[in-house]
Amino acid sequence: MPAAQGRMSTPKKVALAFVLTVFAITWIAPKSPFEQAMHSVLTVVGLLWLWRHDRRWPMRDAHFLAICGFMTLHCIAARWLYSYVPYDQWIQWLTGGWSLDRALGFQRNHFDRLIHFLYGACFAPPLREYFRQRWPALGAGQAFVLAVAAIMCTSLIYEWFEWAIALTMSPQDAESYNGQQGDVWDAHTDMFLATLGSLAAWPRKRAAG
After folding, report:
1. Which whole-number Å values give the CA distances from 49 to 82, 156, 186, in the listed order?
2. Whole-angstrom Cα distance, residue 152 to residue 158?
3. What's the pLDDT at 164?
């Protein structure tokens, strides 16, 4: 049975309001409105799901905030179509010239890689808790395995979704939307990073039950 329903906590309200504010700001004079709108569809769906899910199966504040943090970064990524997020310029501005790309020898924009990794890391813990709420007989390890499997399956479905959309576009537009940056293994790497992110979220403390 789900936990007792209640009003959304103050930290959750603040986090949700912050995401919505960032979402609105990223739509000021958009650089690529159509492509940004396509990326933003999942943001809107995700925020609606988060609100409804938390009402039915209340989440821990930390889990809710982690998902909102992920959504915030996704909004920023959608603004620059992932491939063009100027994270290295921001880092250089903050550090007085130090370049992450030069230091690590990056030849491509890796912001999309970060997002896929964080998808696994931010969603695996709340999924694990949900599975234990939904099916109390599950052990902590069993619930976590299901959470990792869910991350892997949804990552695959997302890549199928991107592929299906790309089929309707010109090769140049499809490349820009998918953010492959010439990498033929882009989809495989994205799914692998999401899996690694979920595995990195393995609970450090033994859960009761």
Report:
1. 23, 19, 27
2. 10
3. 83
